[in-house]
Amino acid sequence: MRRISARERLVGRLPTAFAGALALGATIIGSIALGIGTAGAAPMQPAFADTFRIGNAGPVCEAQSLPAGATRRSVYDRKWLLLCHEVARPIGVAWFVRDGSRPVPGQGLDEALDCTEPGGASVTGLAGVLLRNCRGRVSGLEYHSYTRSSARGTYVVEGLTAFDSALQLTLRSLVTDTLVAGEISAASLGGGGGSSFFQVKAGAADADSLIGQGYRRNAAGAYAEAAQIFAAVAASVGAGTADSGARRHELTINQALQLSNLSQFDQGAALFATARAMSGIDPLQARLGRNFEAIDALNRGDYASVGSILDRPVPPIAGGVIAGDGVVEIDLPIAGTATELAAIISQETISQETRLTPAERAEIADAQATALRGTALRLAGKPAEARAALVTANARALAVRDGRVLPVIALRAQMLAEIARTYETEGNPAQAERLYRAVEALVSAQ
Questions:
Q1: What pLDDT is attached to residue 23?
Q2: Per-residue b/e over 188-216, b at no fewer than 16 CB within 10 Å?
Q3: 10-residue mean pLDDT series, the chain (446 residues)
Q4: What pLDDT sits at residue 17?
């Protein structure tokens, strides 16, 4: 029986180099920017998630976490808006209230509800569920309002009766704190579609949460959805009125990169030009923009331009971090963006609770830039030069916290795979296999 190589075992576990769509290249940068871990994820807990899918078949519907606002009675209270891709309005809302009270019917929806007295309801896997039949005061549409109470608190899920299967799946997922499989059966209310779905999300959720979702969609190769998310967030905050120059820049370069990933290069180029002309860009954002444009050049097959893009000057990392007693503190000049940009380190990966400093995040981005240069050289038929650049990039990345942080682990796995490809190009399969085994070990350790 033929022995399976490490390279073959990595298929499906590691995206293809930095060439093509370059999903991981942007994912690593997203990890630097928003603290998105690249390690194998633990099972999702809907009760604590920013967003989770409702069911796993039928129309695509999601629960999007929202601030509970003035209605919050304790730090444990939560609120979710229920959205479906083919519907231009929310189909429902869900609440968890720790003290056992329940919101006024229709609270969180776009109209008040008139409801009957509660009666028993049959919901698969759950006992003690109460159901109220309701009607919208404005639309006249029928709604269902489900309540399930326990010693822990009260869950309330209410929404359009036409989407009752989605309401029940939401309740089951929240009460059991697991993603419950099931099919959503519902008639479309029309007027929806992908863009309006993300516009509704952007109008309701906070920008940080949605930007993180955009990075995760990009990591999964869902470039069209990622582009819609970044465009929707930009529209919701206003292209010229976002809360910081860094935020405006981040939204713009992410829209541009997703368009590049979709081969819409002219539109992407226009947005990259807009981003370059922006003022008030901090040193890390300047590096992210530079790297994104290099990824765009690789997407376009313009390998010769990658070097000149990466040679563009970027601002040095200034002060602003005060280290004392092992704790990293952030002073006011960078506080506006540091909350967004700090990469939170997994406890399974590094022994102490800490955050990457701005200088460390910049160093990871610069290591990424050197790796992108190496990939361009490899694709241009210069494996030895490419390997030299990639070895340098690997050493730079390894120097950040001894390589024990998640963005660095992911980046190093990709760089070692690229070095292995240079050996393959030169006809040295043994050396390539040795490196693929090292990559496999890194990927398995995440």
A1: 40
A2: ebeebebbbbbbbbbebbebebbbbbbbb
A3: 54 42 45 45 72 86 76 76 78 87 80 90 92 90 91 90 92 92 71 48 53 57 58 53 67 83 86 88 89 92 94 77 35 31 29 63 91 94 95 91 80 89 92 88 71
A4: 37
Burial class (CB in 10 A: 0-12, 13-18, 19+), 278: middle
- CB neighbourhood size of 383 (10 A): 19
Q: How far is the C-alpha of 281 from the C-alpha of 60, rounded, in Å?
A: 37
Burial of 321 (0-12, 13-18, 19+ CB in 10 A): middle
Secondary structure in 3-state letters for the chain: CCCCCHHHHHCCCCCCCCCCCCHHHHHHHHHHHHCCCCCCCCCCCHHHCCEEEECCECCCEEEEEECCHHHCCCCCCEEEEEEECCECCCCEEEEEECCCCCCCCCCCCCCCEEECCCEECCECCECCEEEEEEEECCCCCEEEEEEEECCCCEEEEEEEHHHHHHHHHHHHHHHHCCCCCCECCCCCCCECCHHHHHHHHHHHCCHHHHHHHHHHHHHCCCHHHHHHHHHHHHHHHCCCCCCCHHHHHHHHHHHHHHHHHCCCHHHHHHHHHHHHCCCCCCHHHHHHHHHHHHHHHHHCCCHHHHHHHHCCCCCCCCCCEEEECCEEEECHHHHHHHHHHCCECCCCCCCCCCECCHHHHHHHHHHHHHHHHHHHHHHCCCHHHHHHHHHHHHHHHHCCHHHCCHHHHHHHHHHHHHHHHHHHHCCCHHHHHHHHHHHHHHHHHC
The tokens describing 309, both together, are 């893009």
pTM: 0.55
